[in-house]
Design a protein that fits this description.
The structure is a single chain. The chain is built from 9 helices and 2 strands; from the N terminus they run αααββαααααα. The protein has helices spanning 10-23, 25-37, 41-45, 74-83, 106-120, 129-142, 145-152, 157-163, 166-177, and strands at 56-60, 67-71. The protein has a two-stranded antiparallel ribbon. Helix 1 packs antiparallel against helix 2 (25-37), helix 2 (25-37) runs antiparallel to helix 4 and helix 2 packs across helix 6 (129-142). It is globular.
């Protein structure tokens, strides 16, 4: 299993959003929504337009089979509303060019993120990068690991801190100051 990292630098996130919005609206929305709601890629890709018409996304998580309800952040909601304006409720939010009303695959999402890795010189990017980026910035903004644990449906807080790379950041910081 490859270990992937969150995108820690906010300026890089802004640059990626600017890059994507001029190239491909679908890929932009995938990135923007992904880093702002913290869903697994398997759940993002199965969303339909009707899932984002309101203020919340309600779904049953594929991995855990648990019901989840997430408030869509205001800026993301504005972008989503413009994106889905001419789409039908039953359309997949991230349509594939192959087939009729099919979502992009996990492989396609991976390729989109790998392109970003190449263009922006990122390290260890994969489909979990969106979710980890959300978690990393949620934690650094609020320092509320209990809330993040609940959002991610993790069993314990240590698992959450490891997942978002905070524990590694703290170890790196300490090691950078260590000397004998």
């Amino acid at each position: 299993m490859n270990i992937v990292e969150p995108i820690r630098n906010r300026d890089t996130i802004t640059d990626i959003k600017r890059y994507l919005i001029t190239r491909n609206q679908r890929d932009y929305i995938l990135f923007f929504l992904g880093i702002n709601v913290g869903l697994r890629i398997s759940d993002l890709l199965t969303l339909k337009v009707k899932s984002v018409r309101g203020d919340h996304i309600s779904l049953r998580e594929k991995k855990t089979s648990k019901n989840k309800k997430i408030l869509i952040p205001r800026e993301v909601k504005k972008a989503l509303d413009m994106y889905v304006l001419d789409m039908d409720d039953e359309d997949f939010l991230f349509p594939s060019r192959k087939g009729i009303n099919k979502p992009i695959t996990r492989v396609t999402a991976y390729r989109i993120l790998k392109e970003l890795q190449d263009v922006f010189k990122l390290e260890r990017v994969g489909t979990h990068t969106l979710r980890k980026t959300f978690g990393y910035h949620f934690y650094t903004q609020f320092k509320d690991v209990a809330a993040l644990q609940k959002i991610f449906n993790h069993r314990d807080q240590r698992e959450t801190l490891i997942y978002i790379g905070i524990q590694q950041d703290e170890l790196d910081q300490k090691m950078s100051k260590f000397s004998l």
